[in-house]
Design goal:
By secondary structure, this protein is α+β, with helices and mostly antiparallel strands. The chain is built from 17 helices and 8 strands.
Length: 526
């Protein structure tokens, strides 16, 4: 227990309240989308009714890469990136470093997409990297960009999410200092004598259990937002006189001397199998530098496996396939700095214990959403006499329910537009249309009980619509999905349907009580 004077307690309460109020709704957007993004790849796979291959980059593809390499300009053999989309299709991006007309550096080359099972080439795109599109990944990309950048221009979006991370950190620290009886608060029983006291007790209970998670989430989120957008630029100016190439060489490692002597690439499949044996998992990303030269290098990146904290990267000599050793993310040899940097990402996304840790992170993220919204409710209730605060109170249910409704609507728009090939437009458009509808309903409908009933009914309907539409549009049932190893698609169907039924029950089977409004209720109601 931390003892604070009455004056300091008031200041801490002001910091805690204002940190959550001024940016509370925006913070709710980042937290909720972050909880969803924990399963972004699984959602992407669900949106196309399963992956063709469970471990796409483990499939034999040496012959295919050689075939595609013979179809591109030799200058694009400088670098080759191999990765896969939610459908299990592999993208091979043959490129070199270019500069766009506006002077912005950007990779330029040819990107092929092919089926690892049949070897069929599905698409071929040529140009700069930011000009390519992949409709299969549209829903996953939309959700990730909404969480990371709020779909604001780069780096403005990173600045915004970084600031929100600091706001959450301030709320977490001040909340910790305000807990005079932290251990007791972990086991507080919400009082039933008053709705206001009951809401306050539940806010304290959820906030007490979520404090460690809030610290971790806020710190790692702010770090990831500012590390690339401000941190590297600042280090470059202070330590390297603005020489960004020197900074990159120091962080990643100085490249070896070049040897442009022609030399065929060794068996790529054998190198990736050896890397998978060392990492106990198939590669998630592969990079081939200087294809067809004596100085060629193959980098195989692996995500952290079940029960592991760190990702792995293994390097091979391309000309003979010999193993050169592991390559850390930062520097050329393992270090505490590299371990800390990797740990930040692992803790932020909850990937340290596989599926179990991500489920826990998702649940804690929803709990933090609850803490944010109930905190706003309590703060606004004390200021219900002010018309300004009452208007802000009206925005809480609009955003609180409108955001999940819009997120589900983006999935509906994606599914409906998939066959027409217009998902890049309708995925964000559906999100905006649903957001606008939620705002209009919240502004027009004055009856709070009816408003909450309608919001919950809409949310339940769109959640149930998602698995139904997926099945109707694709036609793939649960039996074939489970037989092909796509159990996660079935689990997401069940989760969405269960959530939808729960919200429909809350909307129509019992009377929903407004809890987020800033309007003051009669004393008798308390």
């Amino acid at each position: 227990m931390i003892e604070l004077s009455q004056a300091r307690s008031k200041r801490m309460l002001a910091v805690h309240g204002w940190a959550g109020t001024v940016l509370g709704l925006a913070l709710y957007v980042v937290i909720l989308t972050g909880a969803v993004v924990v399963f972004a790849h699984e959602i992407g796979t669900w949106s196309v009714s399963g992956s063709r291959a469970q471990q796409p980059l483990a499939a034999p593809m040496d012959a295919k890469i050689r075939e595609l390499a013979g179809q591109v300009d030799p200058e694009y053999l400088d670098d080759i990136n191999l990765f896969h989309n939610p459908a299990g299709h592999i993208s091979a991006f043959f490129h070199t470093h270019g500069v766009k007309e506006d002077g912005h550096p950007m990779e330029k080359g040819v990107r092929f997409t092919f089926d690892p099972v049949t070897g069929e080439t599905l698409t071929r795109q040529e140009g700069y990297a930011d000009e390519f599109d992949d409709p299969v990944s549209a829903l996953e990309h939309f959700l990730v960009e909404l969480h990371v950048n709020l779909h604001a221009p780069n780096p403005v979006g990173l600045y915004l999410t970084g600031i929100l991370g600091f706001a959450m950190l301030a709320a977490a620290v001040s909340g910790f200092l305000l807990h005079r009886h932290l251990i007791k608060d972990l086991f507080v029983a919400p009082r039933l004598s008053s709705r206001l006291l009951n809401a306050r007790d539940r806010h304290i209970l959820a906030g007490s259990w979520g404090l460690p998670f809030a610290f971790v989430l806020a710190f790692t989120g702010a770090f990831l937002s500012f590390a690339g957008s401000i941190g590297l630029m600042t280090i470059s100016m202070v330590a390297f006189g603005g020489d960004q190439e020197k900074l990159i060489e120091t962080i990643i490692g100085t490249p070896e001397g070049e040897d442009a002597t022609p030399a065929p690439l060794a068996d790529l499949d054998a190198m990736l199998r050896q890397s998978a044996d060392k990492a106990h998992s198939a590669p998630a990303f592969v990079s081939i530098m200087h294809y067809g030269r004596a100085d060629a290098r193959v980098f195989a990146f692996h995500l952290a496996g079940e029960g592991e904290l760190q990702s792995q990267q293994h390097v091979f000599k391309g000309s003979d396939g010999s193993y050169l050793g592991p390559k850390p993310t930062i520097g050329t040899t393992p270090s505490a700095g590299d371990a800390a940097f990797t740990l930040v990402s692992v803790l932020h996304f909850g990937t340290f214990a596989g599926l179990l840790s991500r489920v826990i992170w998702f649940a804690l993220g929803l709990a933090m959403c609850y803490v944010t919204l109930t905190g706003l409710q309590l703060w606004l209730r004390r200021r219900a006499e002010s018309p300004l605060w009452r208007r802000l109170g009206r925005s809480v249910p609009i955003v609180g329910y409108g955001l999940p409704i819009a997120l589900a609507a983006s999935g509906i728009g994606y599914l409906l537009a998939l066959s027409a090939g217009t998902v890049l437009f309708w995925t964000p458009a559906s999100f905006l249309i649903a957001s606008g509808l939620a705002i209009v309903i919240g502004c027009i409908l004055r009856d709070e009980v009816l408003l909450y009933r309608l919001y919950r009914g809409l949310l339940g309907a769109v959640l149930i619509a998602l698995p139904v539409l997926r099945w109707l549009i694709d036609g793939t049932g649960w039996g074939p999905l489970m037989a092909s190893g796509n159990d996660m698609v079935v689990l997401l169907d069940l989760a969405l349907a269960t959530g939808g039924i729960g919200y429909l029950y809350a909307a129509f089977a019992r009377r929903p009580e407004p809890r987020w409004s800033g309007a003051k209720r009669p004393v008798a109601a308390e």
